Amino acid sequence: MRILVTGGAGFIGSHTCDALVARGHEVTVLDAVTPPVHRQGRPMYVTPGVDLYIGDVRNRDLLANLLRRTDAVYHFAAYQDYLPDFARFTDVNVTSVAMLYEIAVAERLDLMRVVIASSQAAAGEGLYWCPEHGEQLPAMRPDAALQAARWEIGCPTCDGPMTVRRTPERVANPQNAYGMSKHAAEVLALNLGRRYDIPTTALRYSIVQGPRQSVYNAYSGACRIFSLHYLRGSAPTLYEDGQSLRDYVNIHDVVDANLLVLDDDRAVGRVFNVGGGVAYTTEELADIIRRQFGSDQRARVTGEYRFGDTRHIFSDIDALKQLGWRPQRTPEDSVAEYAAWLPSMPDLDDVLARSQATMRSLGVVRTVAGGRLP
Ligand SMILES: NC(=O)c1ccc[n+]([C@@H]2O[C@H](COP(=O)([O-])OP(=O)(O)OC[C@H]3O[C@@H](n4cnc5c(N)ncnc54)[C@H](O)[C@@H]3O)[C@@H](O)[C@H]2O)c1
After folding, report:
1. Which residues, other chains included, contact 161 with Cβ-Cβ below 8 Å and sequence gap of 6+?
2. 136-159 pLDDT, tens per residue?
3. Given the CA of residue 31, which atom of ligand 1 is nearest to it?
4. CA pair distance 302, 36, nearest whole angstrom
5. Please, which pLDDT band fits residue 350 given cuts at 50, 70 and 90?
6. How many angstroms does the Cα of residue 350 sit away from the middle of ligand 1?
7. Sheet-wide strand order for 2-6
8. Which helix (H) or strand (E) holds 301?
9. How many CB atoms lie under 10 A from the CB of residue 15?
10. Is the beta carbon of 31 within 6 A of some atom in ligand 1?
11. CATH top class, domain 2-371
């Protein structure tokens, strides 16, 4: 098959290209190869054998030219540093999807599959349960609550304690500009795909882990931040109280899911969660990384938090499991592979300081009132 992979020089895209080329597909990559992801330009790990076009996915003529000689598309190109440049999220992440379908419809292209990379961020705070009022989709936490170190979310009706549930695909409750853009991209792709008979699947990845994960973004990646600290011999900071729940999925499991939906027709017209299946607190993840680096310095709670973070999110992966996929690797596997790869990246010295300074100056990282926990 002739396959176009947008964002194929990135983390998930390049691993997916490796697998597609190994299976004999003819792969073309369209990637802008720009900072902050690619500080040094074209990365070493671009898959040998792919045809790489360096350009913007919103360049209509270029995209149209590439789509004309394509049977299937993986659309990974996206902007995803969670900073307050809101317009850029819709501009890159939503416009690109609309343009892809606009070209496919205008030129009556015969695409066998379009796979859209969505995100768990489309589900936002996810699904909660109040013993008295049942299922709840909470709104975002006000800064006043975070300033007072009230991390957990009370029931919107009675303010009583709630438990977090595995969040299925029917939930869409995005809380930041990135999540909203990913949800919009999903809705556009699935609806236009249905209307114009372009077989489309959207995959909502949880936090993906493994080598080639962007090192230089300001925001992304607990695994990256904790690993950089332990690599340098310092102890990382846990935001909030370190008890936020997340699920982490290994990059090779993600590639397996990507390949599965390429030619399984049961996936057409649907969105699937692609997650790790097990919830970890941030503190537990930090401890896995600490052990990997052989450090005895535990991560610290300092009263810092990131404004806009969801408290808990944990994906229900039953739908994709019913197609025969399941996660095969653990966060320990991911962390080991990441730790072996990380030192090969250049210019690591200032990464932590720069990302912390950027997030502080933009008001993303904040400290509880009085500068310390009550
Ligand atoms: N990594 C994760 O944990 C995760 C989780 C959920 C969803 N996703 C989604 O998966 C996809 C891939 O993520 P990733 O982690 O590999 O990211 P990445 O940043 O490593 O890769 C994205 C690639 O897209 C390219 N790109 C960005 N803007 C572009 C543009 N305008 N035109 C052309 N290329 C452009 C970048 O140069 C980069 O190579 C994204 O859509 C992301 O939103 C990732």
Report:
1. 152, 154, 155
2. 999 999 999 999 999 999 999 999
3. 34
4. 27
5. confident
6. 23
7. 51-54, 26-31, 2-6, 72-75, 113-119, 200-205, 270-274
8. strand 300-301
9. 22
10. yes
11. alpha beta
Q: Which atom of ligand 1 is closest in space to residue 12's alpha carbon? A: 16
Return d(Cα 262, Cα 272) in angstroms, integer. Answer: 13
CA 188 to chain CA mean position, Å: 19
For the chain, give the mean pLDDT.
94
207-209/270-274 β-pairing = unpaired
Identify any residues that bridge with 164 across adjacent strands, giving them in sequence order: 128
Q: How far apart are CA 30 and CA 6, in angstroms?
A: 5
What tens digit of pLDDT does each residue of 19-42 get? Answer: 999 999 999 999 999 887 778 788
Closest CA to 53 of 36, 72, 33: 33
Asked if 212 and 11 touch (Cβ cutoff 8 Å), the reply is: yes
- Across the range 201-229, mean pLDDT stands at 89
The gap from C-alpha 232 to its chain's centroid, in whole angstroms, comes to 26
**Distance from Cα 76 to the centre of ligand 1, integer Å:** 5
Q: With contact defined as beta carbons under 8 Å apart, do 230 and 293 qualify?
A: yes
| 7 C-beta closer than 6 A to ligand 1 | yes
Residue closest to 118 by CA, chosen among 150, 80, 164: 80
* Model confidence at 268: pLDDT above 90: yes
Phi, psi dihedrals of residue 35, rounded to the nearest 5°: -70, 160
* One-letter identity of residue 218: A
In a 3-state reduction of DSSP, which class is residue 367? strand
Q: Could you tell me the distance, in angstroms and rounded to a whole number, from the CA of residue 156 to the centre of ligand 1?
A: 34
What are 106's two structure tokens? 């205008």
Q: Is the overall model pTM greater than 0.85, yes or no? A: yes
